[in-house]
Amino acid sequence: MKKLAIIGSGDLGQLIAYHARNDKQFEVVGFFDDFTVLNSFVGTIKVIGRISDIEIKYKEKVFDVIICGIGYKHMAFREKLYVELHNKIEFANLIHSSCYVDVSCDIGKGVFMLPGTFLDYNVTIEDNVVVNLSCAIAHDSKIGAHTFLSPRVVIAGFVSVGKRCNIGVNTTVIDNIKVTNDVQTGGGTVVIKNIDKNGLYVGNPSRFIR
Question: Looking at the structure, do residues 80 and 112 belong to the same domain, yes or no?
Fold first, then answer.
């Protein structure tokens, strides 16, 4: 079993640790966090270093693979860390055993997929993406790097979602839609036409807020 380290010991980092352990996919060896006391414990997991220590600890074989547990409020920093580290350190995928991922799917690195998600034929999930509980992504759709899908997002076929998007709870995107980079949707948003401008969208049908 590979030894997993997690960047960030906040809510998302702790959730990753929980599923990594309870789904018996990894041995979780610690967090890297700049804002929690070094060598303290978050739950039962130790803070083993600062972000600046990651490469050193990797060379010392303290861990085998890493994943980013920094949440959607810090999208740019999350992306920056991944870009800086992914050619130096192996990023893990944590895809819960209850998910259905068709063999035709193309999954990047550093992907965290929570229980109950379904990925149909020829879906692409790019690097450093979080797919929350019970999402459904239909055939030939693509989710861009560093994006978050909230619980119960439904994405129809031939949809393209850009980078650094935050797709809200119960959002529905109908088929053949393109969503540009840096888009956020509110809970229950229904997207029925392309979104070409970044920003926040809410409602049924979706409308631009800011």
Answer: no
Tracing tokens 């193309």 back to the chain, one arrives at 106
With residue 47 as reference, give the H or E element that holds it: strand 45-49
Whole-angstrom distance, CA of residue 74 vs CA of residue 178: 24
- Considering the domain architecture, whether residues 75 and 110 belong to the same structural domain is answered as no
Residue 78: give the domain boundaries. Answer: 3-85
CA distance 121 to 157: 9
Q: How far apart are the first and last CA of the chain?
A: 46
The SS3 assignment for 45 reads strand
Over residues 118-173, the pLDDT tens digits come to 999 999 999 999 999 999 999 999 999 999 999 999 999 999 999 999 999 999 99
DSSP 60: T
Does the predicted TM-score (pTM) go above 0.90?
A: yes
Q: Per the domain annotation, does 210 fall within a domain?
A: no
Number of domains in the chain: 2
